[in-house]
Amino acid sequence: MKFGSERLNSGTRNGDFAKSKGEARRLIWQKAVKVDGQVVSDVDFEFRGGVHRLVEVGKTRIAQAAGE
């Protein structure tokens, strides 16, 4: 799976982690989203594929960024 630069509250369309922007924001507010092991608390957090490697939503939805 390849990630570019994208805001996590966009519904993370590349990873299909959330069905909508509202669901993505709710997951972030509930501290259910981690990037590289760190909890994301900023709804405007921007995932950058060249910098960040791993996205976790809950315990079962995990994706790793493709290497460049």
Report on the architecture of this protein.
- It is built from 1 helix and 6 strands.
- The protein is of the alpha+beta class and 68 residues long.
- The chain has a single domain (5-64), classed as RNA-binding S4 domain (Structural Genomics Hypothetical 15.5 Kd Protein In mrcA-pckA Intergenic Region, Chain A), CATH 3.10.290.
- The longest helix is centred in the middle third of the chain and has 9 residues, at 21-29.
SSE layout and pairings?
Blueprint: E1 5-7, H1 21-29, E2 33-35, E3 38-39, E4 46-48, E5 54-57, E6 61-64
Antiparallel strand pairs: 1-4, 2-3, 2-5, 5-6
Q: How would the global form be characterised? A: globular
**Could you name the ranges where pLDDT drops below 50 across 5 or more consecutive residues?**
none
> Could you give a short account of the major beta sheet?
4 strands, antiparallel
Distance between the termini: 12 Å
Beta content:
25-35%
CATH class (first level) name: Alpha Beta
Based on DSSP secondary structure assignment, what is the total number of beta strands? 6
CATH topology name, in short, is: Structural Genomics Hypothetical 15.5 Kd Protein In mrcA-pckA Intergenic Region, Chain A
**How many helices?**
1
Rg measurement, Å: 10 Å
Helical fraction equals 10-25%
Strand order of the largest sheet: 3-2-5-6
Total count of domains: 1
SSE string, helices as H and strands as E: EHEEEEE
CATH superfamily: RNA-binding S4 domain
